[in-house]
């Protein structure tokens, strides 16, 4: 596909309708997304607690880019291209670990935690100063570590300020990772995110989720008064606790991120199967019953934080037709498995909901593969956030990439 063909195709997309199938299937467009989105935007990488000590490192692959995150002796988190400056080997090959220095497994070139080369390379006719690891941008926000592979990262200021404030009581910088599950979902990453941006499918797909949450009733005039009263009650209760007041779940605060807190249905003090607590209150929460703190960041992160645990989801693209997804469950730093929580009570709510979603997404991807697929219309209220995601995506692609 030539750049002209791509811009023409992007311009032809009808607002409020699903995209042409080529956006979900075409390798050229997937490559362009790497340049326009995955190598330009801020991406959620890991939880800060995964880089607990100086020398802690995590490796990940963002498309074809091997990335290394390391906590330095000064406790700063840094990101680098995980690519040796000698002949290009990956420097760290383990998914995570801890090291005093970073030693390439090929010829043992050795880098300090700040990326500077420590090896004597005079025999190569070069100086160590010019051969440090290529740095990427990295930032810690509310216990989440973001990376940006682009030279000029987008302005993260307003998001950073809002997340620092909203996330403070959840205590993620000191949380314990209770569990994580990795999935390879056979669907394009946009199919996965689009599915996350609406709850029109919830009554059909999510028996557990809809018992705890109001999402499906938000546009229902019969529930309007009840929900408004609940929001008002919770606003008083939460602001008295020093938390931000509740807000409606669905509107994006900005084009690429949102954060809010919303009440759970009475009877549910946390997102568990029966609504009963599943771990001690987390972070600075004085009680379990604080609704859910929800956050969404395009293109690869969402979270639901209850009073006693938080569940984050990270997406990374794996070509046009697949997405690598990691779901992480976090509890308070002092909570102990067996004594304070059990995984078979902590995990099912979001494990089931997530896996129900992956099945939906794989089913959509198979439909997109059909020559008979044609774009379809979004529901104007309940799928408006999908339309917003698609508009954001097309905008980013127009700005940053051509096949
Ligand atoms: S490629 Fe890393 S030391 Fe040779
Ligand atoms: Fe869903």
Summarize the structure in words.
It is a single chain. The chain is α+β, with helices and mostly antiparallel strands. It folds into 2 domains: 112 residues, Rieske [2Fe-2S] iron-sulphur domain (Rieske Iron-sulfur Protein), CATH 2.102.10; 224 residues, Naphthalene 1,2-dioxygenase Alpha Subunit, Chain A, domain 1, CATH 3.90.380. It contains 11 helices and 15 strands. Strands 1-9-8-4-3-2-5 form a 7-stranded antiparallel beta sheet. A 6-stranded antiparallel beta sheet has the order 10-15-14-13-12-11, sandwiched between helices. The radius of gyration is 22 Å and the shape is globular. The chain binds FE2/S2 (inorganic) cluster (FES) and fe (ii) ion (FE2).
Blueprint (SSEs and pairs):
Elements: H1 3-12, H2 22-25, H3 27-38, E1 42-47, E2 56-62, E3 65-71, E4 77-81, E5 96-98, E6 102-103, E7 110-111, E8 135-141, E9 144-148, H4 157-167, E10 176-185, H5 189-196, H6 202-205, H7 207-212, H8 224-240, E11 257-262, E12 292-297, E13 301-305, E14 310-317, E15 323-331, H9 343-346, H10 348-368, H11 384-400
Antiparallel strand pairs: 1-9, 2-3, 2-5, 3-4, 4-8, 6-7, 8-9, 10-15, 11-12, 12-13, 13-14, 14-15
Bound molecules: FE2/S2 (inorganic) cluster and fe (ii) ion (FE2).
């Amino acid at each position: 596909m030539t750049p002209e063909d791509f811009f023409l195709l992007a311009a032809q997309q009808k607002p409020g309708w699903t995209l042409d199938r080529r956006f979900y299937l075409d390798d050229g467009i997937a490559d362009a997304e790497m340049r326009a989105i995955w190598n330009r935007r801020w991406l959620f990488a890991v939880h800060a607690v995964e880089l607990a000590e100086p020398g802690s490192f995590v490796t990940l692959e963002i498309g074809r880019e091997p990335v290394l995150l390391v906590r330095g002796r000064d406790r700063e988190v840094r990101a680098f291209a995980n690519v040796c400056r000698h002949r290009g080997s990956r420097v760290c090959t383990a998914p995570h670990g801890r090291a005093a220095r970073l030693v390439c497994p090929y010829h043992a070139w050795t880098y300090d935690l700040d990326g500077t080369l420590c090896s004597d390379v005079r025999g190569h006719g070069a100086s160590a100063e010019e051969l440090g690891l290529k740095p990427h941008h990295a930032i810690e926000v509310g216990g989440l570590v973001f990376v940006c592979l682009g030279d000029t990262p987008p302005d993260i200021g307003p998001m950073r300020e809002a997340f620092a404030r909203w996330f403070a009581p959840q205590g993620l910088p000191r949380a314990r990772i209770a569990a994580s599950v990795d999935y390879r979902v056979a669907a394009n990453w946009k199919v996965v995110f689009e599915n996350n941006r609406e709850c029109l499918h919830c009554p059909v797909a999510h028996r557990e989720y809809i018992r705890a949450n109001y999402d499906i009733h938000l546009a229902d005039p019969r529930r309007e008064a009840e929900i408004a009263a609940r929001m008002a009650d919770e606003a008083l209760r939460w602001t008295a606790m020093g938390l931000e007041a509740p807000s409606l779940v669905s509107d994006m605060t900005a084009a690429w991120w949102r954060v809010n807190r919303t009440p759970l249905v009475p009877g549910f003090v946390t997102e568990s199967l029966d609504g009963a607590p599943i771990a001690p209150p987390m972070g600075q929460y004085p009680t379990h019953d604080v609704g859910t703190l929800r956050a969404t960041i395009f293109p690869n992160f969402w979270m639901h934080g209850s009073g006693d645990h938080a569940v984050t989801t990270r997406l990374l693209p794996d070509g046009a037709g697949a997405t690598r997804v990691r779901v992480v469950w976090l509890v308070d730093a002092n909570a102990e498995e067996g004594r304070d929580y059990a995984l078979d009570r902590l995990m099912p709510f979001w494990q089931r909901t997530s896996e129900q979603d992956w099945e939906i997404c794989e089913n959509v991807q198979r439909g997109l593969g059909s020559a008979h697929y044609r774009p379809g219309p979004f529901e104007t209220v309940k799928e408006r956030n999908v339309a917003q995601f698609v508009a954001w995506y097309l905008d980013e692609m127009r700005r940053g990439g051509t096949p």
